[in-house]
Amino acid sequence: MSLDHRLIELLVCPVCKGPLELLRDTQLQPRELLCPADRLAFPVRDGLPVMLESEARAVDAPAAPLAPAAGDAAAV
Fold this sequence. Notes:
Elements: H1 5-10, E1 21-24, E2 30-35, E3 40-45, E4 48-49, E5 57-58, E6 68-73
């Protein structure tokens, strides 16, 4: 199951309401939605983003371990 790109464009960080970047795994499957401002990565499970702060993973470095897919940053 894949994420609808229209959905990604509508989603914002539930903490700061900022834009999110879609991160993909090595097979180019959606893995997480990253908020660069808060350095939180929200998981994508079974094609659905889990937009709960309690489920988010803290990202230590400004650059995420997974590379963002080209053109997948959500527009605000």
